[in-house]
């Protein structure tokens, strides 16, 4: 289990002490390749005719990536396609969250195949038990660790719904813990292996479960000598592990891993052993997590070697190891894993410019001849990339293909990332199975998705909504400091490699020019880091105060997120200025925020995004359609019976979206739609044609999982989402929703209003004097509640309760990680059911994030009581109860 910097357990950026580059070099953590000339074009060769095997898809695993049921949300888990995870044993003291049994319903409901258990995480400390191997303290003749092992196996055998899908890891990083000196400790380790192996198998046998899966050795890095000795012994004892485990935590692993695998396979061969699968149960550094251009290098390496792998746990349980943001949102890392989870078919041979070289251009590619799609994921370089494709068979793709390229950029650990934009969209001619696609790139932290399909009816256009993107360090700065974030450090990731700090003076300002092509509504998004507390800046447009920009709290200045505001602009050139003071004298609360990047997008027609069917995940009898006599169907998913297409859509804010499903039918038909498993009526069409069916849905901030079906047959070509002023107006329409300040609910017991002074800073709803009042001391007793009276006009049905809430709860820090605690809110309908919502730690009691809870209300007007009898609930700013659907679906011809 990683510790800070050294290979092993982890400590959070912002919690760890500073580490010098010299120290990192001594530890082998610096292996950065030199940056090439900007004029250089790199070539990435992809041979689709040279298969490297079936897509495994196992490199998206996590260690403690799951915290509690609902943390992360099911949509995040499903979209990231998590096939394997390691968690603590039931009741383990290592962390307050991450219990294997608590998270298994969510894990196995998605792509989950193998759930691993770090059995030593029964102990609260690392190294475990003070770093000392337990003895026989009570002199009963039994090694003190064995009863722990037995009890954990018993609990999973008797309480898990999926015991046969568990893999036990009896020893985690034994080379750094109980068995550090192999010469002296080898015999003890081998004896202990036999003891734990036998104990676990005896439990499984007693419960009629057959053979229990066990993984070993679990070292913090690959050791050929230890591995050879262990496998030699395990073979002789007929106690071979089912999975071989070690960790790859250093940047140098990107250069050395394939050599380690070659050595490992040589050991198996020399011992006359069949292949034993590998899981790298901890990989990567804090600098890699949430950074697409870094993560794609790891993924491509592990997929090439057909091993499973899990991102290391450096900070928090329950956020996919920094690869999701807030309670339900995607960051750049999540989108990369979503892309990786979309790969089907077989993988192709990829030839990068510098194989096995740390921090360079790498890639992974797949081809699915049934779906007629070829995909390349690439990143890690600083130059434009010529992706040179071969093996594109004319019998699959024809001679004319559609090519799209999307760019997934660094957007902070807590950044709210929409679907990555299309940067290349073209129809191209394939000659003798070859095609070269140029990917414009200057960003080593970005990853790219290249998709090739036969010609389709609706190839997405290049996204031109961003009218301005500027690095903060390239703006005109006043009384602020530019910092270089060295990518060779464990934490040093900033967009463009630099950021702006010391932004805490009355005259601190960042000023730049934005050209608005038309009059309309524009969205300014700021990537920055608020250090443990929310903050505020004043936005001036053309030297006139426009509005306050409010930031939610981030873990630190380097563990950053995003905030955005809407601005009305006339056509033409404008001067934007973010300032630490509104009046030039008084510094705004929490203004010392690290500024990284500013983006301005034209959203006059609303935040609009299209999700093509070629990016949907198909199930059942669903197939992709090309060459149809109905040209509008080309590039669509043909559905019938139980066949379905699942889309993962993203929204920047909670509220109503107009969700449109485009389809082509050959006769009367009806579409089905489920939103997070809840059915929504879309009506039907009477005959053949091309149709657009639109329904207004309340979607939570972040990711929603939408599944479309057509039992009687239809071809679905995509989904479009729109949120603009019309949809925002629907948020508060009395026919659809009720919005109430938390302190204005009917309070009982200890629940009470708590004022946050304007001087403290908050991103919550403020009154005219800048004061935010929240509902605190909710829960921790059955009588400490808040009740929402429902308007009778809303009636029974499907609803969403969106709660803007704060949680900064932590348990005692017994080890290396911030021991963050989820809080829970129980919502009870009078005369109906109780539903529980899970609220992630958000760093500050003054910082509010949205969490949406689906409610199926069965009474016409039964009140909703909020509380938690067993523990404190989160602090609440605002609650909004909204119908899942506003109005009825409409269908029009296209």
TrEMBL record:
Pfam families listed in its UniProt record: CBM_35
Q: Which PROSITE patterns match?
A: CBM6, TAT
InterPro entries under this entry?
A: CBM6, Galactose-bd-like_sf, GH, TAT_signal
Domain CBM6 positions: 468-601
Q: Which UniProt keywords apply?
A: Signal
Q: Does the keyword Cell inner membrane apply?
A: no
Q: Residue span of the signal peptide, if any?
A: 1-38
What is the designated name of this protein? Answer: CBM6 domain-containing protein
Q: Which organism is it from?
A: Curtobacterium citreum
């Amino acid at each position: 289990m990683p510790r800070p910097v050294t290979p092993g357990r982890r400590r959070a950026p912002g919690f760890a002490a500073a580490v010098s580059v010299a120290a990192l070099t001594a530890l082998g953590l610096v292996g950065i390749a030199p940056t090439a000339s900007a004029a250089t074009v790199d070539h990435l060769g992809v041979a689709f005719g040279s298969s490297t095997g079936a897509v495994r898809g196992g490199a998206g695993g996590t260690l403690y990536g799951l915290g509690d049921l609902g943390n992360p949300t099911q949509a995040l888990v499903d979209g990231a396609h998590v096939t394997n995870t390691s968690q603590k044993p039931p009741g383990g003291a290592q962390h307050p969250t991450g219990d294997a049994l608590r998270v298994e319903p969510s894990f196995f409901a998605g792509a989950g195949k193998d759930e691993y258990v770090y059995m030593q995480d029964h102990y609260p400390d690392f190294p475990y038990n003070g770093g000392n191997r337990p003895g026989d303290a009570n002199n009963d003749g039994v090694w003190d660790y064995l009863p722990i092992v037995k009890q954990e196996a018993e609990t999973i055998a008797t309480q898990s719904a999926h015991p046969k899908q568990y893999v036990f890891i009896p020893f985690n990083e034994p080379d750094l813990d109980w068995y550090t000196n192999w010469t002296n400790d080898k015999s003890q380790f081998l004896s202990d292996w036999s003891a734990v192996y036998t104990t676990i198998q005896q439990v499984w046998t007693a419960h009629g479960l057959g053979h229990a899966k066990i993984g070993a050795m679990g070292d913090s890095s690959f050791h050929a000598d230890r591995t050879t000795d262990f496998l030699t012994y395990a073979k002789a004892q007929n106690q071979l592990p089912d999975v071989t485990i070690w960790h790859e935590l250093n940047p140098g692993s990107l250069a050395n891993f394939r050599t380690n695998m070659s050595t490992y396979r040589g050991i198996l061969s020399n011992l006359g052993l069949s292949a034993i699968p590998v899981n790298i149960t901890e990989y990567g550094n804090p600098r890699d997590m949430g950074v697409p251009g870094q993560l794609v290098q790891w993924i491509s390496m592990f997929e090439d070697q057909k091993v499973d792998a899990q991102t290391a746990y450096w900070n928090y349980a329950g956020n996919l190891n920094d690869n999701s943001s807030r309670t339900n949102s995607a960051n750049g890392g999540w989108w990369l894993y979503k892309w990786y989870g979309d790969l089907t078919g077989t993988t192709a041979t990829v030839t990068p410019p510098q194989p096995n070289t740390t921090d360079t251009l790498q890639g992974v590619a797949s081809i699915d001849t049934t779906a007629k799609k070829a995909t390349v994921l690439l990143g890690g370089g600083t130059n434009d990339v010529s992706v040179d494709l071969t093996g594109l068979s004319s019998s699959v793709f024809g001679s004319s293909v559609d090519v799209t390229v999307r760019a997934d950029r660094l957007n902070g650990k807590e950044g709210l990332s929409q679907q990555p934009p299309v940067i290349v969209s073209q129809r191209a001619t394939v000659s003798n199975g070859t095609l070269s696609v140029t990917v414009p790139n200057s960003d080593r932290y970005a990853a790219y998705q290249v998709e090739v399909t036969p010609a389709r009816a609706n190839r997405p256009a290049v996204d031109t909504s961003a009218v301005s993107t500027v690095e903060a360090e390239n703006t005109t700065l006043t009384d602020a400091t530019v910092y270089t974030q060295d990518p060779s450090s464990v934490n040093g990731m900033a967009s463009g490699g630099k950021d702006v700090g010391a932004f805490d003076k009355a005259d601190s300002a960042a000023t730049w020019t934005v050209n608005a092509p038309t009059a309309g509504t524009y969205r300014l998004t700021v990537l920055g880091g608020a250090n443990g507390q929310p903050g505020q800046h004043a936005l001036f447009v053309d030297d006139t105060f426009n509005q306050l920009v409010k930031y939610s709290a981030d873990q630190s200045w380097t563990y950053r997120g995003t905030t955005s505001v809407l601005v009305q602009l006339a056509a033409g050139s404008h001067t934007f200025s973010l300032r630490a003071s509104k009046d030039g004298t008084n510094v705004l609360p929490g203004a010392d925020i690290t500024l990284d990047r500013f983006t301005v997008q034209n959203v006059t027609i609303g935040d609009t995004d299209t999700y093509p069917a070629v990016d949907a995940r198909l199930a059942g009898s669903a197939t992709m359609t090309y060459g149809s006599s109905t040209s509008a169907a080309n590039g669509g998913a043909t559905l019938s019976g139980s066949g379905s297409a699942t889309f993962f859509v993203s929204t920047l804010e909670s509220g109503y979206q107009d969700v449109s499903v485009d389809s082509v039918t050959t006769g009367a038909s009806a579409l089905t739609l489920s939103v997070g498993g809840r059915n929504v009526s879309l009506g039907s069409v009477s005959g053949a044609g091309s149709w657009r069916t639109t329904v207004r849905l309340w979607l939570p901030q972040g990711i929603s999982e939408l599944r479309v079906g057509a039992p009687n047959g239809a071809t679905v070509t995509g989904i479009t989402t729109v949120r603009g002023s019309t949809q925002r107006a629907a948020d508060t329409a009395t026919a659809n929703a009720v919005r109430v300040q938390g302190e204005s609910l009917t309070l009982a017991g200890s629940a009470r209003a708590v004022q946050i002074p304007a001087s403290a800073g908050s991103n919550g709803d403020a009154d005219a004097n800048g004061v935010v009042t929240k509902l605190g001391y909710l829960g921790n007793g059955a009588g400490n509640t808040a009740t929402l009276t429902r308007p009778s006009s809303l009636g029974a049905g499907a609803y969403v309760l969106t709660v803007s809430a704060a949680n900064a709860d932590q348990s005692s820090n017994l080890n290396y990680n911030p021991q963050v605690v989820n809080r829970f809110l129980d919502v009870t309908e009078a005369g109906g059911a109780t539903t529980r919502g899970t609220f992630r730690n958000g760093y500050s009691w003054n910082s509010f994030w949205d969490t949406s809870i689906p409610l199926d209300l069965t009474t016409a007007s039964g009140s909703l009581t909020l509380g938690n009898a067993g523990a404190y609930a989160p602090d609440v700013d605002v609650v909004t109860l909204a119908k899942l659907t506003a109005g009825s679906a409409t269908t029009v011809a296209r």
